[in-house]
Design goal:
With 260 residues, the chain is mainly alpha-helical. It has one domain. It has ten helices and no strands. Helix 1 (2-32) packs parallel to helix 8 and helix 2 (41-66) packs parallel to helix 6.
Length: 260
């Protein structure tokens, strides 16, 4: 009974984490009108350190309650060197699938005459993810250190590693508490869906479209983890996805401004 209670505490702590981050980020951005990663290298490092400390406290309490093992949390490195190119390949595949999915949905709306190409383009431009609430695009252009810290530290550690550790812990909690429902392969995919919803809601500060896109991203990353029984291909895929997105942000922002 105590062991089961420990896993309930684990799931409560881990499950609430992305929602707390999303709500706090939304409130902070509305109050201060500045990106979550600030507009300076020093501020970015402070935010990253505080974020990792907060996550470390939440995760540490969850682990103390449940005493989850390395295999529970899918921390085992599998596949040797090929895990790295596999993760890079998954990153490319996820980006393509997201693009195809959005294209198909847009095409269906146009075919069904629920919108026009012009109206759809205007909607996408006006409702694009509010990346400015996360990162300062001007700082990416002018400060090489800020740029490379965002591409490396933020993308692979704050994004890739931290969020995949969270996802694995969430799946472990569901699997251990309700083994009949979430213990099978199909049940783990259902758990991935729940985690994707929470992951998407954790990006509330960036707008509704960002919630949908990051939810789909989280779905893909969770499927990778379940298929390989390891977080590491997903960590690499997530890091590469975020890194390439950040690297392209200045160019994309300039391109969108020309379309307005």
């Amino acid at each position: 009974m105590l062991r089961r209670q420990g896993w309930r505490i684990h799931l409560l702590l881990i499950g609430a984490y992305p929602l707390l981050i999303g709500i706090s980020g939304w409130g902070r951005n509305n109050a201060l009108r500045e990106p979550a990663l600030t507009n300076s290298t020093r501020g970015l490092l402070i935010v990253c350190a505080l974020g990792m400390v907060l996550f470390g406290v939440v995760f540490g309490l969850a682990w103390l309650a449940s005493r989850a093992t390395r295999d529970d949390l899918l921390w085992r490195w599998r596949g040797g060197f090929w895990t790295i190119p596999l993760g890079i390949g998954y990153s490319v595949g996820i980006r393509l699938l997201l693009g195809i999915t959005l294209g198909v949905l847009g095409g269906l709306l146009i075919v069904a005459r629920l919108t026009t190409p012009e109206a759809l383009e205007s909607f996408v431009i006006n409702n694009r993810p509010d990346v400015e609430s996360l990162v300062d695009i001007a700082a990416l252009r002018r400060d090489p250190l800020y740029f490379w810290l965002t591409v490396t530290l933020v993308s692979f550690v704050i994004g890739g590693l931290r969020e995949e550790i969270w996802r694995a812990a969430f799946l472990a909690g569901l699997r251990r508490l309700w083994p009949r429902r979430f213990g099978s392969r199909a049940g783990q995919f259902a758990a991935v869906g729940l985690a994707a919803v929470l992951f998407g809601l954790g990006h509330l500060a960036q707008g509704g479209l960002a919630v949908c896109l990051t939810g789909l991203l989280g779905l893909g990353l969770g499927v990778i983890m379940v298929l390989h029984r390891s977080i590491w291909p997903a960590v690499i895929a997530h890091g590469m996805f975020d890194a390439t997105s950040v690297a392209l942000l200045p160019w994309v922002a300039e391109h969108l401004e020309r379309l307005r």
